[in-house]
Here is the input.
Amino acid sequence: MLADAVETDWKSAPLSDRRKTMLLYAVKLTLTPGDMTLSDINGLRDAGFADRDILDIVEVTAYYAYANRIADGLGVPDEDWIVD
Here is the structure.
């Protein structure tokens, strides 16, 4: 199942190069936002993403980072279904 493959190791999951490019961008934006450059945006454009698509990718990535930090900051416990 694709979801299981993505959860196990998305880099080796059967995803298109376009989707992997998007995920690499989202991971970099999440882990090292200060390192983002125009070349990162151009990488998404080269993969076929329009500027509106890129805005959506940034907004979704940023929203999840924001929401998780709010939950972490308030001590909200993980859901029971989340397994480490």
In short: Residues 7 and 81 are 14 Å apart (CA to CA). The two ends are 20 Å apart (CA to CA). The chain has four helices and no strands.
